[in-house]
Amino acid sequence: ARVQRFTCEKIHAPTEYCGVDCNDNKCEGIDVCCNDTKCGLTCFTPDLSKYSDFPPTPSNVSVSDTKGRTVMIHWDAPKLNDSIYIIQERHYTGCRFSKYSTTGWAAIPRSLALEPPVPMTIKNGTWYEVRVAAVNANGTRGFSHPSKPFRSPSAPTPPQKPFNLRFSPGGRKNNSTMWGVLSWETPSSDLPVKRYSVFWSKRLAGEHTPKDKVHVMVERKTIDAR
């Protein structure tokens, strides 16, 4: 949530170091995009210590029950009747966590809560971080520090078999060969499918070759998943 009463006139002050460049009012959290004489368009952070009507930022964000595909998100904050909490997550699929390769922050399916804990479904083989913000009618102080990276201890399962395999004839080429389109449905998988191996066979036989004399040649091609 962006607090509209924070304007450049109220928060702007000369700065020794330039902050994050901004464009078209796109700044992280509650920062405001202002035009600084030294730095140009820069994201400035309001001094929230001057305001007492915002709920405190949650702290000590953690998770429990990581044995299955559902975890419980916890945080510390005073119980407030006029506030709700927004939970966001970002994730990365890989053997080791890399914060530079994670997705952007996004709200979890059950992103609004009145109090902890809040359940969250996770995938095997994927690392997660979560953060929480408290919001009331006046606005928010922003999101908490992210939790420690976590993942399910269960190993990811191999992808299932592709299904709904079908071939659509396309036409005939000048060299008398046929072409067509082979398609299938993406199988369910804990991890993203990177490649497919496609096998096909050719029957090498003349018109009058007995069936027991027919030679079959199998070919294979590996293609990247889209």
UniProtKB/TrEMBL annotation:
InterPro entries with a match to the protein in the record: Anosmin-1 (IPR042447), FN3_dom (IPR003961), FN3_sf (IPR036116), Ig-like_fold (IPR013783)
Limits of the Fibronectin type-III domain: 57-155
What does the record list as coiled-coil region(s)?
Answer: none
What's a single GO BP term from this record? neuron differentiation
Q: Domain of life, per the record?
A: Eukaryota
Signal peptide range in chain numbering: none
Q: Where is this region: Disordered?
A: 142-169
Q: List the Gene3D superfamilies.
A: Immunoglobulins (2.60.40.10)
GO cellular component terms attached to this protein's record: cell surface
Extract the PANTHER family matched here: ANOSMIN, ANOSMIN-1
Recorded protein name is Anosmin-1
